[in-house]
Amino acid sequence: EKNIMQKYISQLNEAQQAPVLQKDGPMIVIAGAGSGKTRVLTVRIANLMSQGVDAFNILALTFTNKAAREMKKRIADIVGNNEAKNLWMGTFHSVFAKILRIESEKLGYPSNFTIYDSQDSVRLIGQIIKEMQLDKDIYKPKQVLGRISQYKNSLITVKAYFNNPELQEADAMSKKPRLGEIYQNYVERCFKSGAMDFDDLLLKTNELLTRFPDVLMKYQDRFRYILVDEYQDTNHSQYLIVRALSDRFQNICVVGDDAQSIYAFRGANINNILNFQKDYENVQMYRLEQNYRSSKNIVEAANNVIDNNKTKLDKVVWTANEDGPKIKVHRSLTDGEEGRFVASTIFEEKMQKQMHNNEFAILYRTNAQSRAMEDALRKRDIPYRIYGGLSFYQRKEIKDVLSYLRLVINPKDEEALVRVINYPARGIGDTTVEKLTVAANHYKRSIFEVMEHIDKIDLKLNSGTKAKLQDFVTMIKSFQIINENQDAFYLTDHVTKKTGLIQELKKDGTPEGIARIENIEELLNGIKDFTEGQKEVDGARGALSEFLEDVALATDLDNDTGDDDRVALMTIHLAKGLEFPTVFIVGMEEDLFPSAMSMNTRSELEEERRLFYVALTRAEHQAYLTYAQSRYRWGKLVDSEPSRFVEEINDQYLEYLTPVETNYRYKPSFDADIFGDVDKSKLRLAKPVSGTPPKYITDSDPKPNLNIRKLKPVSGNAPSNGNTNLFDSKLTVGNIVMHERFGKGEVLNLEGAGADKKAEIRFEVGGIKKLLLRFAKLDVI
Ligand code: ATP
Ligand code: MG
């Protein structure tokens, strides 16, 4: 084992070895993308264990559970599986959910508390808004949840909120004076249901560690070595947990890259990196500079991009890897064409270079962009997988089954109850459920408890309805008895039949209905795996409660077994930490990336740029940047210009697959020093590249369904004899024209008007083509 360890250490460069070999004390590794931070953490953990540190005493926090699993596998390769399996490793949420289960009663929660996913939370907030008779167009449930989430992650409890006039004022200013009340109701309802939401898992952990010094001591003693990956994206709540736990032994190792901090909008706090040195004594700071992931062109281009950010730590990133191909830039007319380009490129590369589907990733700024990509991939029969959509466990039929199971474990769970009390239909109508909810709120009890005592409470229900409610209670209680004697697989199978769920789906003979039944079978397979695995591990029964906890915290990245040969589609936010041989970054357009919603301040723009840095540095060998000149957004065809981020890359690293645009160049003056919190309308008046004033579409033109600002040709950058944008010109049938790529041709016909004006042209080479005049670069000769 010692020899294997030596081998792994010797495979690291000297800079990487240093943080592995320093056994004790606080340390921070700040380094650029692909420099081996995650690898350093992995080898460091293995090395600690080989030096006799007990796996039980090590806590490693990662960005996804998938990352934790992979790390554990690597460590198991070095120290053996039996040792590695005792490591505490996972996301903040999954690790502290486990601890809260053990300690929950101190906080007044049952140990079988439910974890509400964001669907549950949003529904509950919507319900509260309805009960309070507020306008749901002003109080949008998702937004309200976002606000509450911010409060929780900043440790602002309901009490703290009502003690803080500034926060109340801010909410009142944004037309939500009753947000505090919603917050309060939401917290009470969750508590009454024995439920925690995602943010509670951190908030309650903090509460636990501050209110109960003995508990803090216990976990400080337990986690003598703490390691955190992607430290730049920890929020305040997470930061406080790490600080509290590591306070006694101070064996804390965090790794991160300030240039990859991309979750500020969710409360991540870059100061956690900057303050680290102040929080501990004798902090060792390590830097890694060599990138092992990407070819030189990609590394240099990424450096170009991030150089434009002002707020950053000084860092060097270089690579000894080969130059590799240049980054390819592609322009298309529409998003549909962009999709076809990506799909056909993947198709060709697979043919030519014998590549697998899973060596390609398509990254985008917004989820909506996946549709055009999917359409194109499907047409080419290229298998793909979208990450970050609904996780398997959030599909309706699966969530229905899970809701019954949640009730078995915690009958107070209001969201689960409301979901299935009348599904499949059993004659318990909405009015009845409303009456139950009102009564439950009144008695400060759960709905289930009200149902248990329905005989003693006068809700003006007829005896038939009462009997149905009692039947439901009896059914859930019968499941609870089974759960005490059988494993989770047996119970789930029983539940799907006994509740009538399967029969209900069978009635629906459509392909969708059949697919739903298959999904439920898949769920059963998953539970079977889980129970078998559990039995193997520690002779446990395969507890349902543990399965439900895994499920509540699963993201669909976690379901990825990795051996699927599919093209990966995901937002850039999800791609953090991952790597792929070929990466397409699509939708490289102003207002999309950088997002129109993130251009109000320099700091927002810089976060967008870091996002681009993350995207580009996922590529090992080849990166493509693609953009469309127009795309459908919000149901409208919108014209766009190439993203400034493309221009920030030095031309020597780029290869343009389509002619470089000159007419549309949009040189923003954003990076001038005047940038403060300027208002957006001013930014819109970015100057053209040189002094020539932009041409506007004349008012007499028919109004095209396009963003007019984008149509101003900036002539300053065009060659003097160069191409003219002709869509409001005097082109007539019979004109002989010259086209940049197609050469000489004759105008046969003209149609449409304004921005949609097209010319049919017969070229000497290439035949007849129809060109949209606002894009076509033509000269009349
Ligand atoms: P990110 O910032 O994107 O999270 P990172 O700094 O965590 O990146 P890793 O993912 O650990 O970087 O490493 C990037 C790639 O380089 C991985 O494929 C890793 O196996 C490889 N690598 C790291 N260090 C070395 C090394 N010393 N020799 C060879 N390959 C290495
Ligand atoms: Mg990493």
Automatic annotation (TrEMBL):
Enzyme class: isomerase
One GO process term, biological-process aspect: recombinational repair
GO terms under cellular component: cytosol; DNA helicase complex
Entry EC no(s): 5.6.2.4
UvrD-like helicase ATP-binding domain residues: 10-295
An example Gene Ontology molecular-function term: ATP binding
Location of the UvrD-like helicase C-terminal domain: 296-577
Entry keyword set: ATP-binding, DNA-binding, Helicase, Hydrolase, Isomerase, Nucleotide-binding
Chain positions recorded as ATP binding sites: 31-38
Reaction it catalyzes: Couples ATP hydrolysis with the unwinding of duplex DNA by translocating in the 3'-5' direction; ATP + H2O = ADP + phosphate + H(+)
Similarity annotation: Belongs to the helicase family. UvrD subfamily.
Descriptive protein name: DNA 3'-5' helicase
Source organism of this protein record: Flavobacterium terrae
Taxonomic path: Bacteria, Pseudomonadati, Bacteroidota, Flavobacteriia, Flavobacteriales
